[in-house]
Amino acid sequence: MCGIIGITGGEETLDVLLEGLARLEYRGYDSAGLAVLPATDGGPLWRARAANGTRSLEDLVKRTEDAPPGSSTGIGHTRWATHGRPSEANAHPHVDCTGQLALVHNGIIENHLELSDELVLAGHHLESDTDTEVLAHLIESELGTHPEAGLVGAVRETLRRVRGYFAIAVIHSGEPDLIVAARRVSPLVMGLTETEAMLASDIPALLGRTRSFLLLEDDQIAELRPGSIRVTTLDGTEVIPPLRTVDYDLDAARKDGYPDYMSKEMHEQPMAVANTLLDRLLPDGTLALDEVRISDDELRSIDKVFIVACGSSYHAGLMAKYAIEHWARLPVEIDISSEFRYRDPVLDSRTLVIGVSQSGETVDTLQALREARRWNAKVLVISNVVDSSMTREADAVLYTRAGPEIGVASTKTHLAQITALEILALYLAQTRGTLYPHEAREFLDAMGALPDKVETALERAADVEVVATAYRASPSFIFLGRHVGYPVALEGALKLKELSYLWAEGFPAGELKHGPIAVVEPGTVVIGVATRTHLWEKMMANVAEVKSRGATVVLVANDGDEETERQADAVLWVPETHQLFSPIVDVVPLQLFAYSMARLHGLDVDRPRNLAKVVTVE
Ligand code: G6P
User: What CATH fold (topology level) applies to the domain 455-600?
Assistant: First the structure.
């Protein structure tokens, strides 16, 4: 997955591209590049590429004096490598043999090998190891055969031959005001002003330039010219997408004086939870969801729930399983999206499939939900991004209102997801009659205390740092939990490994004795979620098992719990809350621990190596 951007009709084309690319870095930062067209027909296009992401690209562009003056059309790309290592040669834009055409791509061309064999046989010279480059040469070839169809005709014919996913933008020096864009599965939005037309992988990349957006759907092609956008389908039928106005605040995506996005976003967690809870209870006692196109009768007829998600969103889903089963008395299966899609799951119209996705664009989850719809299951999406691909296709949507999240490791959106899923669990319970409305209201009222408890947990950041400092030399960590503490342990381990690159693994505490305990030896650091739940005693028995084998034990414990403290080498304190809500609070010190550990190791917490925030490849 990568980020793409393009603009035509502007005056500061290079600046717009560089600024947009910097905002798209969360989608990948292995390398970056841009290409602009000269102001006059037929001149050569100008391309700059850097192997080390958008900052080095910016330096490169500033150092170079040969950029064409007055260019008003250009495209840019920030890369998360899939095919071909991160290098300048593999950085986009890719050009054709003539050097007149440049193309950027986000996605994967699955049949690129057979296409490239064919192109090489026909005499094309391919320079990179990417799957993308074939597109530039196929378009070149079409333009040679059917010049009368122009760039848009050549792109259309090329895309008919391609298998896989793409969001592309193409420019050609023979048509200097034009950008041709197209999409299948990978996200692409377009913005419009009176004199400009632009495109990007997401809306924030273009905010500040416009508030008027159009969304390109699958297998549509757009022709962007200064002040106008024409959209057609792959077979050439014209479509008129609605113009949408967004009211996001760009400032919300800046750091606000914090050293990095991650700490800013962790400190926004009380607000993210509070906003997600806000106004959910209607005067008649029912819960308000966003965009519900499933009737209460349909919800009552549901006999099974599937949750599909990836990464931290998967852990949020795992936490919610306990709440939905307990309150709504519905069987819940949870699966990692990329596994769900290919395992022939048993679904029908009485199945509710809940997709959990911060971005609403993760391709594994998007395709899993499409598979669910194919079986007539009802699809409900929990997402942080309004109008994302998943939310547009869902039967119902419950938005997390966390605001834009830039740090690659999810924090505030993770807490907001758990909150939203718990609200959903209560809604299902109430609709299905497994909880009385007054009971659902009592639980919802109790959730009102969560933002303050999260705030209290965050105020302990300095104490957590002391603990992280004490164990900074440990090469590996084991995380343990039971019941809802188990997904908290999984999330703690994921945060630590993705940010600090240390080996960390989470286990159900009761499972340890069936294998993992073999790796415990004197000095192994074990981090346990030992807050007060009905399984606290059993959890402490598992803690005793690792202690007796010499492990060093760090426990997440409720404030004032001296009994737990006595069993620990160090404690991460959190306020006590209802067991089913406890993940929202208990995960906070583990986020802080991973954050401190990464900083102690001198690592960039916002841009962990090899990762990207939005993953639009399978
Ligand atoms: C990437 C991110 C993770 C995120 C996962 C799922 O791997 O680095 O932080 O949890 O994708 O993303 P989603 O947008 O679907 O929640």
Answer: Rossmann fold (3.40.50)
